[in-house]
């Protein structure tokens, strides 16, 4: 899943992952993090998700990181915002009303450029990446966040042999293998979503769960 794959998807508007509403599980479970409104929130691999506006409405300053400039432009246009735009090293920064985008490769993001943050919303980031990149993603995220940072993570669970990702299956034991040594890991919800996701059933998936985790970095 390299840059060209995703940029082409944005160019062709093959963005079936985009939800036309704020993610209901974000609204249900974000309060469990009990983050103060002035905590900054990082949204990696953000697409043009409406979740950014919801997080902003909770008081958080939001930093989205996304490869596709089309996605960033679309987010602001659809939100009725006119962002500023400037080149910042390897990234392009868009900014309006407390929601910033850094357009570029997440793996090129330094802690200095990212800045401090208290929370992470990961929907469609970890599960967007194939296994070798998932490990890199987790390791890179660890270079950005400080102890105490909390993440709300949504994963998908299905038999990987039934369908090629993305989105990829990330079972619970894999979540523990990534985060168990460095984070407190709490499974908040596992739910059967097969009936809600006809695209998966059409591709041969016979059982599909979604899981929501709260992660808190210890060290
Ligand atoms: C499955 S989509 C999820 C988007 C969003 N989180 C949502 O819930 O709608 C994954 C997104 O990650 C972006 N992406 C993939 N690899 C990336 C990378 N290395 N750096 C930044 N963005 C990336 C893609 O362009 C795509 O918009």
Radius of gyration equals 17 Å
| Tally of DSSP β-strands | 9
Tally of discrete structural domains: 1
Quick one: overall form? globular
Structural overview:
With 219 residues, this protein is an alpha/beta fold. It has a single domain, classed as 3-Layer(aba) Sandwich (Rossmann fold), CATH 3.40.50. The protein has a 9-stranded mixed beta sheet, sandwiched between helices. Strand 6, helix 6 and strand 7 form a beta-alpha-beta unit. It is globular, with a radius of gyration of 17 Å. The two termini are 30 Å apart. The relative contact order is 0.15. It binds S-adenosylmethionine.
In short:
A nine-stranded mixed β-sheet has the order 3-4-5-2-1-6-7-9-8, sandwiched between helices. It is built from eight helices and nine strands. With 219 residues, the chain is of the alpha/beta class.
List keywords for this structure.
219 residues; alpha/beta; Rossmann fold; nine-stranded mixed beta sheet; 8 helices; 9 strands; globular; binds S-adenosylmethionine
């Amino acid at each position: 899943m390299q840059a060209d794959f995703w940029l082409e998807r944005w160019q062709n508007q093959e963005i079936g992952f985009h939800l036309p509403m704020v993610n209901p599980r974000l609204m249900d479970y974000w309060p469990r993090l009990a983050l103060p409104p002035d905590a900054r929130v990082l949204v990696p691999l953000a697409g043009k998700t409406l979740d950014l506006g919801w997080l902003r409405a909770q008081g958080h300053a939001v930093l989205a990181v996304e490869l596709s400039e089309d996605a960033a432009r679309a987010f602001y246009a659809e939100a009725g915002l006119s962002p500023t735009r400037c080149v910042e090293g390897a990234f392009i920064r868009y900014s309006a009303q407390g929601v910033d985008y850094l357009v570029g490769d997440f793996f090129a993001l330094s802690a200095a450029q990212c800045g401090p943050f208290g929370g992470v919303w990961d929907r469609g980031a970890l599960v967007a990446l194939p296994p070798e990149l998932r490990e890199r993603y987790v390791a890179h995220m660890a270079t950005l966040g400080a102890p105490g940072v909390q993440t709300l993570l949504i994963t998908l669970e299905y038999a990987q042999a039934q369908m090629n990702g993305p989105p990829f299956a990330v079972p619970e034991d894999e979540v523990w293998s990534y985060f168990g040594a460095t984070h407190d890991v709490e499974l908040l919800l596992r739910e059967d979503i097969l009936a809600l996701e006809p695209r998966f059933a059409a591709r041969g998936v016979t059982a599909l769960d979604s899981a929501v985790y709260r992660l808190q970095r210890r060290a």
